[in-house]
């Protein structure tokens, strides 16, 4: 075979190869598929994160609302002192409501009774109860050495310039939820995130609040908030 014939055959081969489009779509898909899959996973992660944050907020509102209604069904002439069992039921209800996002294992619900002491003219934390495995404490204090009567004076609770305060003779059920968001796919899509949601309701019933130096709840159970 002469050189001219070899060159001719090579030219015809490359011409046919250049015109052959079989497998182009598959090659293009192989190139772009990882990009679209990554974008899809990222979009799903962001959407699920937003839904989870909304669920945490809903649990906070529900717990505060339910805690504010404790005692409404009591028909006795003397306003009741709410019990440890009452508070435990509210907290466990919040934990059950957040079961779909495993709020018990990934978060902590802190329920605080914010009250007003007319003798010292101070806002104070009368009692505080928690549920959930996350090791974190309230951002505002506790019921013992940082309750507003001892330790730093408490101006109120809540983020922002306008703090939530309790009127005289009333109490505010203030809820904080701390939640560690578990990434669906990988933390490479979203940074490690902790959600913190708050909610507050003034009590909607006549209840005996007790004096500041007395225990605010009756009963023996204690869902305390001590560090683990």
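Sequence proposed for the structure above (228 residues):
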């Amino acid at each position: 075979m002469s050189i001219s014939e070899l060159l001719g055959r090579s030219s015809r081969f490359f011409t046919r190869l250049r015109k052959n489009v079989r497998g182009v779509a598959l090659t293009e898909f192989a190139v772009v598929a990882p990009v679209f899959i990554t974008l899809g996973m990222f979009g799903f992660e962001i959407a699920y994160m937003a839904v989870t944050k909304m669920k945490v907020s809903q649990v906070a509102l529900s717990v505060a609302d339910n805690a504010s209604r404790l005692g409404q069904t009591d028909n006795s002439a003397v306003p009741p002192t709410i019990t440890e069992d009452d508070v435990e039921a509210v907290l466990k209800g919040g934990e059950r409501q957040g079961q779909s996002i495993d709020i018990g294992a990934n978060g902590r619900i802190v329920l605080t009774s914010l009250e007003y002491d007319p003798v010292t003219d101070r806002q104070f934390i009368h009692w505080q109860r928690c549920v959930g495995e996350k090791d974190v404490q309230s951002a505002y204090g506790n019921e013992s050495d940082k309750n507003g009567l001892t330790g730093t004076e408490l101006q109120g609770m809540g983020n922002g310039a306008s703090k939530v305060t309790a009127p005289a003779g009333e109490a505010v059920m203030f809820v904080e939820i701390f939640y560690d968001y578990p990434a669906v796919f990988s933390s490479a899509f979203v940074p490690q995130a902790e959600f913190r949601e708050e909610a507050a309701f003034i009590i909607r019933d006549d209840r005996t609040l007790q004096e500041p130096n007395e225990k605010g709840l009756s009963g023996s159970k204690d869902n305390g908030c001590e560090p683990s």
